[in-house]
Design goal:
The chain is of the alpha/beta class. Helices cover 26% and strands 26% of the residues.
Length: 487
């Protein structure tokens, strides 16, 4: 009897079906045990207890989308630290909060207040109308790594780069002010290195850096340092005139001077040639000039500053008892309303921060035996100082500074700007009146054309004629004194 032969097609079919069954079982078995394919469990979002309500609201808005299916789990949490951390992969510096108080406060550090007296605000909200406080001795805009609360958001996922980062980058990655982006600008008051300072220079052997010894490190630490110098350099300087020994240029370079204002009413005391040669000296040293020049046309030019992505238009005028130029002779920039309006409007159209300095009529309420407070007020020997300075803010200036007062005057917020009525003497020989031995340094912090802060730092000198920063106790007393008489 013949043997039954399996039909080749049937053999193929049985083999194919067996292979298919094994393949399907293996395929779905692997998915089942590895939780992939149809058995895949979507990634889960785990919210940590450190997250606050605002952060949770943003996160829910991202991850609660019904169409979003994560491949891997993600754990999200947050923490606050008091020192800027080095961020790990998956971490974002989400917010920085800084301690503030009233603009008019005389105390500087968080430790001097109760917690309820301090307002912690997001750094984005900081502007010159609030006073930034130091914390543990750190001033955030000088340090950037301390003096604030740093909020860190962390995302822990096996697929952070591919899956999570594209979802959260726009909400949690932020750029903050830094040393590379904040322009620091120190404005100082009257400098008139003359008369008694000429005699002192001779007595100490001619080293003019002596007068800057105790202030140079502070002033040279700024991106830009300014002073209003009222005396020209000449070989004919003496103990009897308001002229500067030529060696006094070393005092200015020691403090890192970048900008010299020439609105003063004494720069021609030593003659036109000395004034011209002094301008040449500034140019040789790379010191920019504002508010004065070899001619009236040159003197009226604004100083345009473009640094660290900030633009500043610096205007300076003379409205005083003399010193202005009206022709081809050297001198200060005379104030004309039309010129001020044109320059301020042009600067504002360009988006610049506008600083206007004014050499105004001087307050001369001096006394040798007691603290005469006449000049603390925004008063002058002539004219309406308060009204005129406020008018410049109304025209569009952001900062208005009086650079004629030989002793510091009060200051105030006004309109959309801030006014400092008088800065006092940075370098001068007036040691016989208490008020004239003091000055205010304005430490401006500018970010993207915005004035973040102006820190007010008082100085003082004595018979040594070496200017120094005022000590803490004296500083608080003096700032409170000036604030008590603001308009």
């Amino acid at each position: 009897m013949a043997k039954n032969k399996r039909h080749p097609f049937k053999t193929f079919l049985v083999g194919f079906v067996s292979f298919a069954i094994v393949f399907v079982v293996a395929f779905f078995g692997i998915q089942f045990f590895t939780k992939t394919g149809i058995f895949k469990i979507p990634g889960v979002v785990y919210y940590g207890e450190g997250l606050n309500n605002d952060e949770l609201s943003i996160l829910h808005g991202i991850f609660d989308d019904e169409e979003l299916v994560l491949d891997k789990d993600v754990a999200i949490d947050a923490r606050t630290v008091e020192e800027r951390p080095l961020l790990e992969p998956g971490e974002y510096l989400y917010s920085i909060e800084v301690p503030t108080n009233s603009f008019y406060e005389n105390r500087d550090d968080v430790s001097e207040y109760t917690e309820t007296e301090i307002e912690w605000i997001p750094l984005e909200q900081l502007d010159f109308t609030r006073k930034l406080l130091s914390k543990d001795g750190y001033y955030f805009l000088d340090d950037f790594d301390h003096g604030a609360k740093f909020r860190i958001i962390s995302f822990d996922s096996e697929k952070f780069d591919e899956e999570i980062q594209p979802l959260v980058e726009n909400s949690f990655a932020k750029d903050y002010p830094s040393k590379d982006t904040v322009l620091t600008f120190a404005q100082t008051g009257v400098t008139a290195m003359s008369r008694g300072m000429n005699a002192k220079l001779k007595a100490i052997g001619g080293d003019a850096t002596y007068f800057a010894e105790n202030i140079k490190d502070y002033l040279s630490s700024f991106d830009l340092t300014h002073t209003s110098n009222e005396s020209s350099f000449t070989d004919y300087a003496s103990s009897a005139n308001i002229c500067s020994d030529k060696r006094f240029i070393d005092t200015l370079t020691a403090i890192g001077l970048d900008i010299v204002e020439l609105t003063g009413n004494h720069n021609q005391d030593c003659g036109d040639e000395a004034a011209r040669e002094s301008i040449d000296t500034y140019n040789e040293k790379g010191i920019k000039i504002v508010g004065g020049g070899k001619t009236a046309e040159e003197a009226k030019k604004p100083l345009n500053i473009n640094d660290k992505n900030s633009k500043v238009t610096f205007l300076a005028y003379n409205l005083s008892t003399g010193g202005a130029t009206y022709d081809a002779t050297p001198g200060a920039n005379q104030y004309y309303e039309e010129d001020a309006v044109t320059n301020i409007n042009k600067a504002k159209e360009n988006g610049d921060l506008v600083i206007v300095d004014i050499q105004y009529y001087e307050c001369s309420g001096y006394a040798s035996e007691y603290e005469d407070r006449t000049c603390d007020y925004a008063n002058s020997s002539a004219g309406d100082q308060v009204g005129f300075f406020r008018h410049l803010i109304d025209l569009g200036a952001d900062i208005v500074v009086g650079t004629s007062a030989h002793q510091p005057q009060t200051y105030e917020l006004y309109g959309d700007g801030v006014i400092f009525y008088g800065l006092g003497n940075l370098f001068f020989d007036q040691i016989w009146w208490p008020g004239t031995t003091r000055s205010l340094i304005l430490s401006h912090y500018i970010y993207g054309n915005k004035l973040l802060q102006t820190k007010v730092v008082p100085t003082v000198y004595d018979s040594t004629m070496q200017t120094r920063l005022m000590d803490k106790e004296k500083k608080e007393w003096f700032i409170e004194r000036l604030m008590s008489v603001r308009p």
